């Protein structure tokens, strides 16, 4: 829909109209390699979450570096990425609507597809849709391991896996993700929450074994937790997403010991469009970056973003700022924002501008459409 | 970008795939008429803010009911709405970038266009761009009347108006909006903030008169404040936007005495896709509705939305619920959400589904593209 002016490949950073979603491609590729290397060295499958980046070009880079495919949360996302050539997608979430399940079954006839279930009704409807279409999908039973959102209690996992098998569906394992634990600030407290979650996974897996069913795979984990799932000897697949871009919220976590470090690779380029005596106003508000996890940070300047509303961001000098970089930016100056939360920030934009050579002297190397933006259904 | 499945005109509500942005057209039209009547009876021009709805079809309905045109905040929004046939647009915000100003001057050659300024540099660049293109625009001087965001201090308004005139630009009046005051809960406290703002407008206007310049119009006001601007005898034009749809945040305000009442007209249709023993999970998270002003309310049910993340909403029974409607919804059931904040919620969606006849037995009457969604620049 957007009337957006996009920069040409090879253009200088000054040619990027603001606000724009910009990737530091050098940092992104180091993150991509670091996670691929980690997974390989720890003998884990990597299936990164494309709900974060929503972009086929990036999914393909991840798969070229060893990922077995990608995850998404929504059927619409799977359809959009499949249409752009991504051929192995797992919807790590439930679909209960029969019209949607018919579309799912259609898509399963064209690409390698998986889905999660957490109810008898969901299993029954999924089986009916796949049978009607004559297509096949990997079916994971989701277990609630402490988030209190989707998933059956661990004690019920065996019975639901039995229903999956009874309906002639291909039981592929357990979906087990603790989303809330990702953002626990202290490393020790985060590990404790993960150990609790892993114990629940162990109980669920034992229940499936008792039901006489083989559990081929446990899949889950996020950027804040994957070291623990990897060490559990239960999980076989990692679903991390945010590691590729990072955000202010993940950067606020105390690092996990022995975890690879990821760099900030996602930015919103903004411009000062108004100046007061003690504040500057940039042209990027909460329609340009998500604030559900707090305000953006200002990249390498001692400035705070103190709100401003839908279309504006008000910047003030940090109280204890003392060096030359503390100065308020001038009218027309570029300011790089580090989004508070990467996933919903990406979902506000139609394109990524990929920059090579850093945010000072880099050039535009790629403009990628965000195919699954707005794919909510 | 979205692979969205859209309902046919005439379809039942069950045909609307979730999550979807739905307008109760009956309620919207009552809101539209109530504001149009208020403006006419109070001899105020009405120029509703299209930054809220971002939709040409709705802008045209407002203009057909008497609005002189619409406001937007961004050049990209103006371009998108102009391309869809809206021919009188005021950008109630500053543009400092020279590339953008060249595009502004192009657009000013095609439609009736206005813009705000709050700096000498902005005036100089605007004059240069309009002169280069040979086009004309209405230029408003923005005054900061208490929000601490854009705008010059009232004492500086006369000097900036003088610069506008000196550059051969058409000075059209004052832009004077107090955004923060819109959401002050108590009616008396809100009125006090507005009276302070109005006193600052009076000071700015006096400064312009002292500079020997006529001030043709003061434009501003929002859904939470317009009764006060109308009573001030200073303002000549109202810019309210949210009155058309409303949201949970505006509904939480204590009503202004003697103000027309507006009804909730904007909803996110969601569906229960997972059920626990004491909670239900709907398929609409913070990628389907904005949470900057808090969570959505649940329409006509004693349920609370207690988070859930990017793609999920967790619903729980309200502690004090006691009637039949308190029951948790079943798997597959429809739940109507009232967004916390309408503007950024609209900005997440590609289409409106307009429903006639209410949310129980209505039918789809219209599907409107949201042309200016994602128009950030």
CATH uppermost class of the largest domain in chain A: Alpha Beta
Q: Write down the overall geometry of chain A.
A: globular
User: Biggest interface: chains and residue counts?
Assistant: A-B, 73 and 73 residues
Instruction: Estimate nothing, just give the exact number of structural domains of chain A.
Output: 2
Q: By CATH's scheme, which homologous superfamily of the largest domain in chain A applies?
A: Alanine racemase
Q: Average pLDDT across residues of chain A? A: 96
Q: Counting H and I runs of at least 4 residues, what is the number of helices of chain A?
A: 12
Classify the oligomer: homodimer
Indicate the CATH topology of the largest domain in chain A.
TIM Barrel
Largest sheet entry of chain A: 9 strands, mixed
The succession of helices and strands of chain A, N to C, reads EHEHHEHEHEHEHEHEHEHEEEEEEHEHE
Pick out the low-confidence regions of chain A: none
| Helical content class of chain A | 25-40%
Given helix and strand content, the structural type of chain A is alpha/beta
Q: What would you say the CATH architecture of the largest domain in chain A is?
A: Alpha-Beta Barrel
Number of strands of chain A: 17
Termini distance of chain A?
19 Å
What is the C-alpha radius of gyration of chain A, as a whole number of Å?
22 Å
């Amino acid at each position: 829909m957007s009337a957006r002016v996009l920069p040409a490949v090879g253009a200088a950073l000054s040619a990027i109209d603001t606000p724009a979603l910009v990737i530091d491609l050098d940092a992104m590729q180091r993150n991509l390699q670091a996670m691929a290397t980690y997974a390989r060295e720890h003998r884990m499958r990597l299936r990164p979450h494309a709900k974060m980046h929503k972009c086929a070009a990036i999914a393909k880079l991840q798969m070229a570096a060893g990922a077995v495919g990608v995850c998404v949360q929504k059927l619409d996302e799977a359809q959009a990425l499949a249409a752009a050539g991504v051929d192995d997608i797992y919807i790590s979430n439930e679909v209960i609507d029969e019209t949607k399940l018919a579309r799912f079954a259609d898509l399963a006839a064209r690409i390698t597809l998986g889905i999660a279930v957490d109810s008898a009704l969901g299993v029954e409807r999924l089986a009916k849709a796949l049978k009607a279409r004559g297509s096949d999908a990997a079916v994971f039973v989701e277990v609630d391991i402490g988030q209190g959102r989707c998933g059956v209690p661990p004690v019920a996992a065996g019975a639901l896996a039995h229903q999956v098998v009874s309906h002639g569906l291909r039981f592929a394992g357990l979906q087990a993700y603790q989303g809330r634990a990702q953002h626990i600030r202290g490393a020790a407290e985060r590990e404790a929450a993960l150990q609790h979650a892993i114990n629940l996974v162990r109980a669920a897996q034992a229940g499936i074994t008792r039901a006489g069913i083989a559990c081929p795979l446990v899949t889950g984990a996020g950027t804040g937790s994957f070291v623990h799932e990897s060490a559990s000897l239960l999980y076989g697949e990692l679903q991390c997403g945010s590691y590729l871009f990072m955000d202010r919220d993940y950067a606020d976590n105390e690092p996990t010991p022995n975890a690879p470090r990821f760099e900030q690779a996602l930015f919103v380029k903004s411009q000062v469009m108004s100046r007061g005596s003690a504040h500057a106003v940039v042209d990027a508000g909460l329609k340009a970056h998500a604030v559900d996890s707090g305000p953006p940070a200002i990249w390498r300047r001692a400035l705070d973003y103190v709100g401003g509303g839908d279309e504006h961001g008000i910047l003030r000098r940090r109280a204890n700022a003392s060096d030359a970089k503390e100065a308020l930016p001038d009218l027309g100056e570029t300011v790089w924002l580090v989004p508070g939360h990467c996933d919903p920030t990406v979902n506000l934009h139609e394109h990524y501008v990929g920059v090579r050579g850093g945010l000072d002297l880099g050039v535009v190397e790629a403009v990628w459409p965000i195919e699954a933006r707005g794919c909510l259904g």
